[in-house]
Amino acid sequence: MNMDTFETSVRRFDEFASEYAKRFMNIDSYRPHFEKFCDLIANEHPKILELACGPGNVTRYLKEKLPNSEIIAIDLAPKMIDFARSTVSGVDFRVMDVREISKLNGLFDSIMCAFCLPFLSDEDTNKLISDCADRLVNNGVLYLSTMEGEESKAGFESTSFSGDSKIYFNYHMQVNLERYLVDNGFQIEYSIRQNYQEYSGDVSIDLILIGIKIKDKASTPKHSKSINL
Description:
Helices cover 32% and strands 28% of the residues.
């Protein structure tokens, strides 16, 4: 991704953190997928890493569902982290770039990555999945969700929370994400698509994938190119 587009999107989320929270604190349409994620976590006192946690909407669900969990939740927009801290207690919230999780110490039982991928390029997404594999224990669980579509659809779009300020969105193909997961030692446990009504009136496709780390990524052959259908 062009660095300017990424940084612009981060600034937009920081600027409109309150408006975003009002629009997206209700997660009911994704609750069944989050429940599946939680049900796959074997440890009764799991260590969870949440990427791009935003205002803490998903974090709050995880902490209520798994009260004995130890959660580190990161986001690059400081105001999002401030809002999350005021929303959920008992969580280690940090201002941090998801592209730098290799700097974190220790391993996690699960990683939640809900709608972070729309703000990452295909290359950065492949690297993120690889970094997640490094940060997970064996049989660790990884949740990914994104808007499905060809990479060529990427561009600045209006949103329901940022007024006239547009945000840059990336799109990802299921075949590519599944390949990156398998390449990094994951078994795909769950995949589903569902419609989402966009601010513009168009309908996009939300793609949810859950993988379980079943082997070391070094033992699997790598595919170097993504496929756009």
